[in-house]
């Protein structure tokens, strides 16, 4: 068999260590988690975020925070952040 078809490489290490949740009693917990989740989605690392934190994309607990971030992104002209926030909000409706 050609070596081109043999998978000798292992999956690269996940970067889950960089997704650490703030203390749950922090007054800005929801905002910080929502921003962290949307930033993970912005760079296509939502699976890493979910694995590291145990939270799921589309978790309804963060609707208000994600809505505020989406509105802020729209005012700032941050199309990518606005897009991932809108996707998050659509995921909640399902």
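Q: What amino acid sequence fits the structure above?
A:
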């Amino acid at each position: 068999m050609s070596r081109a078809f043999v998978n000798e490489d292992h999956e690269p290490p996940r970067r889950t260590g960089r997704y650490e949740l703030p203390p749950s009693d922090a007054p800005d917990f929801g905002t910080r988690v929502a921003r962290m989740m949307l930033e993970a989605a912005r760079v296509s690392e939502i699976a890493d975020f979910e694995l590291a934190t145990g939270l799921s994309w589309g978790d309804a607990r963060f609707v208000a925070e994600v809505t505020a971030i989406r509105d802020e992104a729209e005012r700032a002209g941050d199309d990518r952040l606005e897009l991932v926030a809108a996707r998050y909000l659509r995921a909640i409706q399902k």
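Q: And what stands out in the fold?
A: The two ends are 46 Å apart (CA to CA).
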